[in-house]
Design a protein that fits this description.
The protein has about 350 residues and is of the alpha/beta class. It is about 45% helix and about 15% strand. α1 packs parallel to α14 and α6 packs across α7.
Length: about 350
């Protein structure tokens, strides 16, 4: 089996996730590829990664994801250069456009034309990483120097020399055009809900991006997919631990007709089920929305049940475009994943 492992510490709820420090230390010892942190509208991604990452030696340190609307492209690039130096060249800049509810509701930014905005954002980051010249950019969403101010702004160059000019940028994406964009202009793709049965759909999207970007092979591109891994003797009981999350994302993380997570599962063939989940969730009936998530839908994007079942199903992931599985959980799950994938 060629599948690598990563640890995604995920979002914080009311505070830091319990057992994260111990899980990170174990992942570092067991040869995990990387650890990741996340942000939405609570904890930020960079602070925990720097704090926890300082006690690691081997794992790469990634953000899954830094919200593009939370920082300007220059501020994002500054953080990346800083983290890469502090970690000795182990940093991965995972970024994403998020969705309109968070971008406009929390960050107070426009969500218009996310693909175009992402392309400009990455372009500026690359210029700063290259440090070949002062940075000037004239786009529809970002302009450097700012053209409508005092007139005193001038193109600047980072005072910090990059440890790596090719510092990797990974893109979180769900729709086919955004997935293709990850392969065209970035170094990796961070899928949230990947189903091995839809591998051909995503492989075609990635290949179209690689063709557009002039990438000749897949060797320098990583697909690091977050997957819920829940071992246990009862598949239904394991699925019950995933249903609330899927009900939230499908039913509540976006408006009706504008929910990218809904669209992912609809493409898998669960549109009718998603309609029911969304209707129940948006009407305030969250318990029934959770109950309406079918076990088959959980199994499509997660590894649940007895260890032998999980091991058999990992083979499907190993044959897909996914290079690395990002699991989330306590030290016991880190050890389980290392054993079952070893």
């Amino acid at each position: 089996m060629n599948m690598r492992l990563g640890l995604n510490t995920g979002y914080w709820s009311s505070g830091p996730p319990k057992g994260a420090v111990e899980a990170i230390a174990l992942a570092d010892r067991l040869g995990f590829e990387h650890i990741w942190t996340a942000e939405a509208y609570g904890s930020d991604a960079l602070t925990p990664l720097a704090w926890w990452g300082a006690s690691t030696t081997n794992v790469k340190l990634g953000t899954a994801i830094m919200q593009m609307s939370a920082r300007t492209p220059a501020a994002t690039a500054m953080a990346c250069l800083t983290m890469d130096h502090l970690s000795g060249g182990r940093f991965i800049a995972g970024i994403g456009a998020s969705g309109p509810q968070v971008v406009e509701g929390w960050y107070g930014q426009s969500y218009s034309r996310p693909l175009e905005r992402t392309r400009e954002f990455v372009n500026i980051m690359r210029q700063i990483f290259d440090r070949d010249d002062t940075v000037a950019f004239e786009g529809k969403h970002y302009q450097l120097p700012f053209p409508h101010g005092t007139g005193l702004g001038k193109p600047l160059k980072s005072t910090v020399h990059p440890l790596r000019k090719d510092l990797p940028i990974y893109l979180a994406a769900e729709g086919p055009k955004n997935v293709a964009l990850s392969a065209e202009i970035c170094d990796g793709w961070l899928p949230l809900f990947f189903a091995p049965k839809d591998n051909d759909f995503y492989k075609d999207a990635l290949q179209s991006g690689m063709d557009a970007g002039g990438r000749n092979n897949w060797d320098d591109f990583e697909v690091a997919a977050t997957v819920s891994m829940i071992p246990g003797p009862d598949v239904e009981a394991c699925a019950d631990k995933i249903r609330p999350m899927l009900a939230l994302y499908v039913g509540g993380m976006g408006a009706k007709g504008k929910n990218f997570h809904f669209d992912v599962f609809a493409r898998m063939g669960y549109e009718a089920e998603c309609d029911k989940i969304q209707q129940l969730y948006l009407s305030g009936n969250k318990a029934d929305a959770i109950a309406a998530v079918p076990t088959e839908m959980c199994e499509a994007i997660a590894l649940i049940g007895p260890p032998d079942k999980i091991k058999d199903e990992i083979a499907m992931w190993d044959e897909s475009v996914v290079n690395t599985l990002l699991i989330s959980g306590p030290p016991s799950l880190v050890q389980f994943a290392a054993d079952i994938c070893g």
